[in-house]
Amino acid sequence: MDTESFRREARRVADWVADYLRDVELFPVLSPAEPGVVRAALPSQPPPSGEPLDAVLRDLEELLLPATTHWQSPGFMAYFASSGSGPGILGETLAAGLNVNAMLWRTAPAATELEQVTLDWLRQMVGLPEPLFGVINDTASSSTLYALAAAREAQTDLRIRELGMAGRPDLPRLRYYASAEAHSSVEKAGIVLGVGRDGLRRIPVDDRFRMDPVALRRAIREDIAAGIRPFAVVATAGTTSTTSVDPVAAIAGICEQHGLWLHVDAAYGGAAAVAPELRWVLDGAERADSIVLNPHKWLFTPIDCSVLWTRRPEMLRSAFSIVPEYLASNQGTDDDAPNLMDYGTSLGRRMRALKLWMVIRHFGTDGLAARIREHCAMASTVAQWVEHASDFELLAPAPLSVVCLRAHPRGLDDPGTLDTLNQRIVERINTGGRYFLSHTRLRDAYAIRVAFGNVRQEQRHARGVIDALRHSMDDDVG
Ligand SMILES: *Cc1c(COP(=O)(O)O)cnc(C)c1O
């Protein structure tokens, strides 16, 4: 693609994206596609000779768009928001243009140092104290895996890095702890690290879905008495079902007492701390050994961008650093010129800091805080409506931008009937195309989740989803 064709095609693509974002509310948020339609519509073999961009864009519009679920749409209120803002999309484009690979400081000095600077800005924005070393990974699942690998490595006497774990009768069983509401990625990390699903002990939660620190302390003592070696605790600031925030300060005290690595999973909730009045979500996280926060969730940065901070970068390095000869000559040594390949399993890494840096520079701290505040206000609008509606109820507190609720008409108390009623309400809304909602189970009841956090959402979308819930319920009951 020569310079002039690239210039021309790039303009067309930019126009295409601008139009898409302008019109995104016209598409059904949840794609109605059936499994296999895209595969059936596309040629099963690659083109023998090159094709023009026209043909590709036509397929994008005719074949791919109808099978796209529109995360960029303000009607997307399922799971957690993950919306790419204009400056984030431009940052992604520029990063692809430069296409550096930040394995070593030497292979990408600007990308490496920009990552350090941007993550130090973000640290200040959420009110965490220095020193905190940060790296950007693809997802929170990777960040948590790496943090727990460092926690396992911190049990230095076990020499797991050198000797592995299999076939070693000298090893104690290892255990780490997280609440019953912690994310599945916490459990997955245990599978990868060889401690097994049994290596994770789930701690019960209180009536607001927060980890019970008394139960945590008891579990750790029981395990030690049984000859098991505790090595880490994962506290969650913003759980996946209800956005509950564990009592991190109390958990930190227990970790300090027992010498356990504390990892705080703030993948979604950490962003709230950009608004000064919501900074409490990270209370106690200043005592953590590591923290994960995903700018690709609630900070308007296109996926993927997950920040892992640690107060003990040397432990991450001892878990992961291997320097083969072909990379050795360009070794940076000090913390000002880190080699980012040393902090996880990937050697190659994209310049992910650029899009985050551009998002922060575009909105400014105040602009980001204002949007986060608005999203919480939208959740309050929905929560207040639920509290005043005689036939709906809240199923959990809504401290941030997510509301868990269900329809509960008077006199209809059978659990199974309520579950199917609420399931039908969600299905009807999702097939309607304007909104996409997801669900969870709370105390064994089906709960509708309404999640705000999309950069294009306004109060009218909160009022709109309230109307949709009301109508869907009325249509059902007749
Ligand atoms: C979304 C989320 C994750 C997983 O994030 P990925 O980046 O998709 O791996 C983990 N923990 C919490 C609390 C989350 O909200």
What does this structure look like?
- The protein is an alpha/beta fold.
- It has a domain at 100-349: Type I PLP-dependent aspartate aminotransferase-like (Major domain) (Aspartate Aminotransferase, domain 2).
- It is 44% helix and 12% strand.
- The protein has 16 helices and eleven strands.
- A seven-stranded mixed β-sheet has the order 1-7-6-5-4-2-3, with helices on both faces.
- Helix 4 (86-98) runs antiparallel to helix 14 (353-388) and helix 6 (140-153) crosses helix 12 (313-320).
- The protein starts with a helix and ends with a helix.
- Pyridoxal-5'-phosphate is lined by residues 80, 139-141, 183, 185, 236, 238, 240, 265, 267-268, 294, 306.
Compute the gyration radius: what is it? 24 Å
Distinct helical segment count = 16
The shape, in one word, is: globular
CATH superfamily caption of the domain at 100-349:
Type I PLP-dependent aspartate aminotransferase-like (Major domain)
Span of the ends, CA to CA: 60 Å
Note the run of SSEs as H and E.
Answer: HHHHHEHHEHEHEHEEHEHHHEEHEEH
What small-molecule ligands were found?
Answer: pyridoxal-5'-phosphate
Q: Largest beta sheet: what is the strand line-up?
A: 1-7-6-5-4-2-3
CATH class of the domain at 100-349: Alpha Beta
Under CATH, the topology of the domain at 100-349 can be stated as Aspartate Aminotransferase, domain 2
Tally the beta strands.
Answer: 11
